[in-house]
Write a structure and sequence with these properties.
Distance between the termini of chain A: 58 Å
Number of helices of chain A: 16
Strand content of chain A: 15-25%
Helix content of chain A: 25-40%
Structural class of chain A: alpha/beta
Shape of chain A: elongated
Oligomer: homodimer
Strand order of the largest sheet of chain A: 6-5-4-3-2-1-8-7
Chain lengths: ~525, ~525
């Protein structure tokens, strides 16, 4: 491994095979505002199985009818991964797991004074008995039991150890002393797990970290280094409050920084991230490791140039390893060599003098606080180089009708090299209808996919300027384009057409023409 | 400190005073797609100064005219923080810093073979000379010099140490061996810095980490534990690729987990985060530690209930410490006690039987994949409790026509206590027209002012859910209301009507009536 040269200060006691326990569908779904249907959960479970996780916590069977249904559907699917349901320390919760058909239960009972006193209003002795009873009951009914000690990292050490001993005597197969509020550090995680493993050398431990201080990934890995055999993770690190340890970060760091293999197919990480983000509605920030939009994007001039010479200069992770591709973008920090590379990719070859002019206009736009998209760069190059403007699609007419008693409907008339193309469509609102109408008109020429649609937050009045960004693709080519207008419908249509014109002229059929239908 | 009970496996050599070096305006602004104007940079710099950072890297003076202007404006502002500009190892870059009036330069020269060979195409000896010359030149012109060894963590140890020795001999005041591509781990960061500090006990070191593997915060803290005296951070962790170590996470973890004070006023963290997110356009994901929307939100039933009993159960960080407030939301995981608390806050007091019914309806909505907002909960409670619905204004009909060749026009028909009120208006787009039509209809009853209109950024597709917030006022009364719909026009009208209904029923004429015009 090329990144391990600085050695490791503490010894590494990684398990031979680190198990990945995914809780996207349980702890992840407890993200405020997230609610998945059983069908959506099944879709994510299948993706997790493809990804290669060892265990899937499918939900909390006793919580609602839908949750029960989801666990049942996923358990029936015969996935490779082991299927867990969450349960608290009650017979009803465990019964729901048994009925759901899940093979395994993640049974959670608090171990800290705060939780025992303020949440359960019980004594420590009652907790010991409760854990014992629940585990025995679950085992008697054929369940595999992972016992979770909630808030373990804030518990009295002697009581926690007693609870662990009793739970294993009662039949628990694996024990997760949870860092429920995310207060471990890498050092304390290592010390905590080392201490437990020393006292219980024959027990398999699992680590469950939350990200309240931004250290869930480092803490999880520290516990694995101490010898924990399993790690709880979620896709995109979603979960309550600041979320859980992110599956993608843990798996990639283990592989590249520690040389520890897991069963995860890393090249499927990005598609899993996109699916979870889409179905849960929880956005991934652009500067998120591995799966963020910018994780493999290079703008800054010096960097883009160096990456073109040798990707290793600024890429610790080969993008294809995690199912991604490198992206170069221009911007005010771009150097002239980076701009030249992007232009060349568009099939535009400026000479030195022209490149200088293009370069200085890009900088000027940046200083004004403007983003420079691919289409902006193209327009600048066309002007500087006096190139014919390739705008095959021009908007002639757009009409949209919408309201609460009318299906939002749009018609669009485009001029395509002198020919008129017409499209019409409905949508959930005027923007959706207008964009659908444009796509309807354009697809007669060539199919374009709208991959992403972003509107920057609008502030001020209802007549404020709206900034719409779209990402479009056509087979393997992608572009982003911007539309700016005080009318969100017009801004969206402008962005769409500008991107379509770019894709079709730069990467389209040499001389496409519109055939009357 | 209540979280330190597990002790620390390695010794802590924290500096007496850890310095916070903020690079939001330089490395942060190198985020692809971000471009700030000098005025915006100044605004952020002032906020950083209020926040209490020790140093502000204001930009890269030699990069563009705007960058130069920004550094100059910020340097002139007489902030408490020390003002840095970035420079590469060229006379031109350093001259720009001198001219800008910044007191200090962050001078970066590569130290790794990959960077020296593929980026600069130089030999190691040339690098040593270059560093020496540049540092001397900067010092001769009165600059304080922080010397950054780029890609230091992938450099040959012996060469790196030689470079550091030469840089200090030449006058460098502090040295930052940068983890340019984020490949440190907490253990290797600790070992790396311990080794350097052992060899150079009299040199002040700074740590600069990137988040490619999700460990920038843990790595930064590990370096500080080893004795580094300064840490490079950005607000919200923005920066190239996966970004830099997040200021808010480093500062709060140092304080609460390690008992190390910094000069940061923690209660200003949230407003700084909001400002940077708004001006850069880089979203913060909801599950982001400290500043994410959900970091202090509790939905899940058991949790919300416990938090009501004792916030410590699920809150490692008191929200007010970092300028935030606790938020309880309902959802499919919500317990009945959490729902009751939210309803009581609205002034609604259901009995046990009613609460049970409300509870089961909330669960049903959740199983269907629906978010449950406060207004949804209010509506459910009103139905179950058979409360009179205070909705004097009801939308009967809304029609909007828009397009590129038609003036956006809307008509609206409202039911006001059985009477029909009609309004019509034009606008710059369909939203503006619809809102104007509503105001036109309503003002016949009572004049309502629209003070603010805000749309949360929309991500996903053109059919994504849109969240509109309006602030309305009527003489001296103000309210905010939310509209959520997949159609931005409908979301806007809903928000508007819900706010109007609230203002008119709570603060309106006791029994207002509509007079025919």
């Amino acid at each position: 491994m090329r990144f391990r040269k600085w050695g490791i200060a503490l010894s590494n006691n990684f398990a031979k095979k680190v198990r990945i326990f995914d809780t996207t569908l349980r702890d992840g779904e407890q993200t405020p505002g997230v609610a998945l249907t059983p069908e959506q959960k099944l879709k994510i479970a299948k993706k997790l199985d493809e990804l290669g996780v060892n265990a899937i916590e499918a939900g909390f069977a006793a919580a609602t009818k839908g949750e029960f249904e989801a666990v049942k559907m996923i358990a029936k699917e015969n996935l490779r991964a082991e299927i867990f349901s969450f349960a608290r320390g009650t017979k009803e919760d465990i019964d729901a797991v048994i009925e759901s058909g899940a093979s395994s239960v993640f049974l959670v009972i608090p171990s800290s004074e705060t939780h025992i006193k303020y949440k359960l209003k019980k004594t420590q002795d009652q907790i010991l008995e409760l854990a014992e009873e629940c585990i025995q009951y679950a085992k008697d009914h054929g369940l595999k039991v992972e016992f979770g000690a909630e808030d373990a990292t804030r518990s009295e050490t002697s009581f926690l150890k007693e609870l662990i001993a009793r739970s294993v005597d009662a039949g628990a197969d694996i024990v997760a002393p949870c860092d429920t509020v995310g207060i471990l550090t890498p050092e304390s995680a290592y010390a905590f797990f080392s201490d437990l493993i020393k006292d219980f050398p024959n027990i398999a431990f699992s680590v469950h970290c939350h990200d309240d201080f931004g250290m869930a990934v480092a803490n999880s890995i520290a516990a694995l280094r101490a010898g924990a055999q399993e790690v709880h993770v979620t896709i995109n690190g979603i979960g309550e409050r600041a979320g859980n340890a992110a599956l993608e970060e843990v798996a990639v760091a283990l592989k590249l920084l520690y040389g520890v293999d897991t069963s995860i197919n890393l090249d499927k990480l990005y598609e899993a991230s996109l699916l979870v983000s889409r179905l849960t509605g929880v956005l991934v920030q652009p500067n998120k490791a591995i799966v963020g939009e910018n994780a493999f994007t290079h703008e800054s001039g010096i960097h883009a140039h160096a990456v073109l010479n040798n990707p290793l200069t600024y890429e610790p992770i080969p993008p294809e390893l995690v199912g991604r591709t490198r992206r170069l973008v221009v911007g005010k920090h771009a150097g002239s060599k980076g701009i030249k590379a992007v232009l060349n990719e568009m099939g535009i070859y400026p000479d030195e003098e022209q490149l200088k002019k293009i370069f200085s206009r890009v900088k000027m736009l940046g200083d004004k606080g403007k983003k420079v998209t691919d289409t902006d760069l193209e327009a600048i190059a066309e002007t500087v180089m006096n190139m014919p403007r390739h705008r095959p699609f021009k908007l002639k007419e757009l009409t949209v009708v919408t309201g609460n008693r009318v299906t939002p409907t749009a018609s669009v008339k485009l001029d395509v090299k002198g020919e008129t193309v017409v499209g019409a469509a409905t949508g959930v609102g005027p923007v959706d209808a207008a964009i659908n109408a444009v796509r309807n008109a354009v697809q007669m020429v060539e199919p374009i996919r709208l991959d992403e649609y972003h509107v920057k937050s609008i502030s001020g009045g209802t007549d404020a300027i709206v900034e719409v960004m779209v990402r479009l693709s056509k087979v393997d080519r992608t572009t982003t384009a911007l539309g700016i207008h005080e009318d969100i419908v017009m801004a969206s249509v402008e962005a769409m057409l500008s991107g379509i014109n770019y894709l079709l002229t730069r990467f389209g059929k040499e001389n496409f023409s519109y055939e009357h239908a």
